[in-house]
Fold this sequence. Notes:
The chain is mainly beta. It has one domain: Porin (Beta Barrel). Helix content is 6%, strand content 55%. It has 4 helices and 19 strands. It has helices at 2-17, 46-50, 64-67, 104-110, and strands spanning 79-97, 147-167, 170-183, 186-195, 213-242, 245-275, 278-285, 289-311, 315-322, 325-339, 355-367, 370-377, 383-391, 398-401, 417-425, 430-440, 456-468, 471-487, 491-509. The chain has a 14-stranded antiparallel barrel. It is elongated and about 100 Å long. The protein starts with a helix and ends with a strand.
Amino acid sequence: MKSSLAKKIDTIVIAALLNCASIAIAQPSAVPLDVQGLDQWTIAGVRSRAMGGASVASANDASALFSNPAALSRLSSFEIRAGGLYGRTSRQQTQAWVPMRPVPGLSLLLESLTGTVKTPDSLGIPGLPVSAWETVQRQYDNITPNWDRSTSASQPLSLAAAMPLEIAGFKIAAGVGASQVMNLDNFYQDNNALSPYPGQLRPFPVFFTNRNDTVHIKWYQYIRERKGFVYGITPGAAITLLPGLTLGGSVTILSGTSDDNESRVERGHINVAISNGVAGKFMVDTVYYFQTKIGTSTYSGNVFTLGLRYEQERFSVGAVVKPAMTLTRKWDRNVTSLDTTKKWFPIRIDSLTARNYKESGSDKLEFPLSYTLGFILTPTDKWTIAFDYEVRSLGDMQLTSTSAAAALHPWINNRATMRFGVEYCADDMLALRGGYRQDIQAFSPDGSAIIDEPARGGVYSLGAGFAMGNILIDVAYEYWRLKFDDVYQSNTNYNSREQHQFMMEIAYRF
C-alpha cells in the first residue's frame, strides 16, 4: 500500500513538473525586453540622497527644483550647483535543482553535473552501448547554470540654478535645471530557460499530460540588457502666500535614449517520455539556433509637479503631487537569427546564412497620479529628522503598444515607499547625514508565496556637507541591496543585485 501511495505521489509530482506541456509559453522570468527599467526614477539632490532620499519637506537648496519646487523659498541668495555620480553594480544568479526520482538525470543535466558521470553498459555487458534513451544525457555546450556580472559607470546627475525674488510684495523663488529622471539600467540572464517550463507554479493552472505521451521542452540561454537614461529640463517657481506657507510648481520636459539588447541561444531539445502517467526516460537532441535583437529606444514626455510646504520653528510638512503623465517610447532594432535545427548533424556552422530583418514600434506608458508626503522635525538647531511617504501606484500603469492588441498592466507594485533621513550640523562648516529608503520593485518573483507581492530591497546611505565661504560641497554614498528567489517545483533561482554609488555636488552661492 505504501508502494502504491508512493507511486501516486511520484505521478502527481512529475505531472506537475511537466505542467503546461500543451501550452507554448516561455519561462515567466525570461520575458522579452519592453518596459523593464522604466520604473526606476532618480532622486537628484545629493544632500537628499545622503538622507535616504527624504526631500519633500527637508530640501533647502536649488535641487529642491526636482523634488518639491515649493522648497525653493528656503533660498536666501542666488545659487548654482552641479552634481555627478559613480556607481558599481554586481548581479548574480545561483540555481538549485531538485532531484526527481523517476528522472534524476534531468536535474543533473540542468546543473551541468552529468559530464563526470560514466556512461553505463547495456545489460551489464562491457562494450555493449545502451540506447539513446537509456544513456547518460550530456549538454552540447560549456554553459553552466550560475553566473555573476559586474559593471561600473560615471554619469551626470544634475545641474541647477535658482534665486529668490520679490515681485509686487510677494516673495518668489525661481529656478531652472537639468537632471537625471530615470536610470534605465536593467539586466537579466537565465542559462536554463525552458519552454514550456517544467515546475512552474503560477499563474497558470496545472495540466496533466496523457498517460502515454512525449513532452517536448525547448532548452535555451536567455539574456536581456538595457542601458540608458532619461533626462529632464525643469523650470520651476515658488511663491510665499502666508508666513511659513509656500506653493510651488514645475514642469519637466523628458528626453532620453537606451541601448536594448536581447539574445537567445538554443542549448537542446529535451524529450520526456511518459509511460502510464509517470516520466521514466528523457533524451536531449542537438539544436542549433540563436537569435539576437540589438536596437535603441527613444523616450519623451512631460512631468508636472505641484508642491506645498508649511514651515514652523521646530517642524515642517510638505506635499508633492504629480498628475497622471504619458511617457512615449519609440524603438527599432535589428534581428539576426540562425536556425539549422532541421538539417542533419554534423553540419558546418560557418557555412550557414543568417537571417536578418528590422523591427520597429512605439509604446505609451500612462503613469497614474502619484503623491508624496514629507515631514521634518528639528528638535534642536543641530538635528534634523526627515521622513517621506510616497505613493506611485505602479500597478495601475497602463502600457499601450503597437505590437499588442490591448492595453496591458505589466507592473504589480501599488505599495507605498518610505524614506528616512537624519542630519547633524556639527558647526557652520560641517554637516553629517545618514538615511535609509525602501526599494520596492515593480515585479513579483516567480512562484512568490503571496501572489503579486513585489520583490523588496533597501538603500542605505551616508554623507556629509562642507561649507567653505560661498562654496558648498555635498557628498554621499549609497549601498543598494536586492535579493529575491524565483521558486518552482523543480528548482529555485537565487537572484541578487548589489550597488555601490558615490556622488558629489558642488554649489556656489552669490
